[in-house]
Specification:
Elements lengths: L9 E6 L2 E6 L10 H14 L7 E6 L10 H8 L10 H17 L4 E6 L2 E3 L1 H7 L3 E4 L4 E3 L13 H8 L1 H10 L2 E3 H7 L4 E2 L3 H17 L2 H13 L5 H17 L1 H11 L11
Parallel strand pairs: 2-3, 3-4, 4-6, 5-7, 6-9
Antiparallel strand pairs: 1-2, 7-8
Length: about 270
């Protein structure tokens, strides 16, 4: 892949077919600044066309995932009057985050969130757009916006997609904070760990499964899943059948079939 972009708020490390992205603002519990939003967007844009990177691991430094929006950015936006003909600074701030989280949601890569400590506001939204979410014992999830007199404007649609309207109503309208066990019960996370060591084991297992799945087929499957409920079923199934035929006749389909018949791992499952 191309050299990784220089980031001030993120630590980037390539590990086989995975890119480890660590949010690195531990002094503010990894609160999400405009700079961090821009850097995450840049990273996901750069790796989108990179065939070597098949998974992105998102986690936070210092024992916290992400405590929500950065208060300094909010204060800065408050001091900027909305100029004639220009969008309100708060609109631009909020919408920039929404564009980034949509980009993560629609990434063709497998996004794995490793979650510890504070998972609030925007951090909660980021967890809700992961493909695989793994929570440690210290994880605390919340949508505190209404208790602060604001609204979860950009994350609410993704929370509804994740856990359904009924549960999203309760969390958002009461500004609740919940632990890892309830987050797993609601479907926010897929697995919870009792210790840091077990959390690392769950991550290793997930990355091993990514390695065994064909990257092209994985990307097409993720794109197909995102279309469910957004277009008529008949047309969706017609399109899916076309994608299936292309996959069967494609390079990965041929390799997968040969590997199965020859009782060997497919090439994409080989260790780098």
């Amino acid at each position: 892949m191309e050299s990784l972009p220089h980031c001030e708020t993120l630590l980037l490390e390539k590990q086989g077919p995975a890119l480890l992205v660590t949010i690195n603002r531990p002094d503010v519990r990894n609160a999400m600044s405009l700079q961090m939003v821009a850097e995450l967007s840049t990273v996901f844009a750069q790796i989108e066309a990179d065939p070597i990177i098949r998974a992105v691991v998102l986690r936070g430094a210092g024992g916290h995932f992400c405590a929500g929006g950065d208060i300094k950015d909010m204060a800065g936006a408050r001091t900027q009057p909305a100029a004639d003909g220009e969008a309100d600074p708060f609109y631009r701030l909020n919408r920039a985050f929404g564009q980034m989280i949509q980009q993560v949601n629609e990434s063709s890569k497998v996004v794995i969130a490793v979650i510890e400590g504070a998972v609030m506001g925007g951090g909660f939204g980021l967890a809700c757009v992961s493909d695989v979410a793994l929570a440690g014992p210290t994880a605390k999830f919340g949508m505190p916006e209404t208790s602060l007199g604001i609204i979860p404007a950009q994350i609410a649609p993704f929370v509804v997609e994740r856990i359904g309207l009924t549960q999203a109503r309760r969390l958002a309208l009461l500004g609740l904070k919940i632990g890892a066990a309830e987050a797993e019960r609601l479907g926010i996370v897929h697995q919870t760990a009792d210790s840091d060591g077990q959390l690392e084991e769950l991550l290793a297992q997930a990355l091993e499964r990514v390695r065994h799945c064909a990257p092209g087929a994985t990307a097409e499957t993720k794109a197909l899943l995102h279309r469910v409920g957004k277009e008529p079923m008949s047309g969706l199934l017609d399109s899916a059948a076309e994608k299936f035929a292309q996959a069967v006749r494609g390079t990965e389909g041929n390799e997968g079939t040969m590997a199965f018949m020859q009782k060997r791992p497919p090439k994409w499952a080989e260790n780098d």
